[in-house]
Amino acid sequence: MKRLDDPEELRACCRGDALCVWAAQGLDGRSRAWASDDRRAVVVAGVNLLARERAVVWGAPDAAVPLLRQVVAEVGPAYRALGGRTLIEAVVREVPGLTAIGGFGWMDRCDAPGDGSPGDAAPVGGEAVWLPAGAGEEVGRFVDMSFPDSYAKPGVPGVERWAGVRDSAGRLAAVGAHAWCAPTVGFLSGVAVHPGARRRGLGRQVGGFLIAEALSTHGTVALMVDDWNQAAIRLYEGMGLRYRPLGAVAVKG
After folding, report:
1. Which positions of the chain have pLDDT values less than 50?
2. Which domain holds residue 30?
3. C-alpha to C-alpha distance for 115 and 13, rounded to whole angstroms
4. pLDDT of residue 251
5. Is residue 140 part of a domain?
6. 73 — alpha (psi -120 to 50), left (phi > 0) or beta?
7. What CATH number is given to the structural domain containing 188?
8. Residue that is last in its domain, among 96, 126, 148
9. Residues 88, 246 contacting (CB under 8 angstroms)
10. In sequence order, which ranges of the chain are alpha helices (DSSP H)?
11. Burial tier of 150 (Cβ tally within 10 Å: 0-12, 13-18, 19+)
12. Which residue in 67, 70, 94, 233 has a CA-CA distance of 20 to 30 Å to 155?
């Protein structure tokens, strides 16, 4: 296997795959990346991706599975591998002692004017604004109440900045964050709407604001979403993001 130290070399090896590029975090020390000798597979091992150590695997199964074995032997078993669902199913078939975890996916949008992609659509946005740094305690209470399972919470390493919408009384009605962003991939997490304010378009307002800001700053925007959350998938598809199913592996208990 070959160690990749140049973000552009990584991008070339994975054909610009946004999940790999995001996981690499610019190869600034938080993540490491390798390619198979024939460059048909890539593995990126990242620290503190969605609050844990994760190894993203990409490529042809016959090249990716042995590469993942080599990487795990080097970095240790603490990294949870994730990637395209079909590829992860191949990993589970070939590596004893693993089980597949599904039920979620990756969504992304890359603005490339003139290529006919969804990125040519007008930027989306709404009545959301960036919240001041001093609002962390208020945001934390809101997320604990509206989205307690969120990986993104104020004070968690990698969670960068929160946006929100307030109601007429000045109370938070919806929030969302940029978190674990890479230099060329802005990542959305923690989008939550107050239970009493749902079905009013507030998720679209916050999501649209965060998407527009990420595209402006990073050029690509991405997020992860549960398969069961079809409303969110439709919402983000309506804002130009494309969905693909992911899988992850865990050691059988």
Report:
1. 113-123, 253
2. 2-96
3. 22
4. 66
5. yes
6. alpha
7. 3.40.630.30
8. 96
9. yes
10. 7-13, 18-24, 61-75, 85-94, 136-146, 202-218, 230-237
11. buried
12. 233
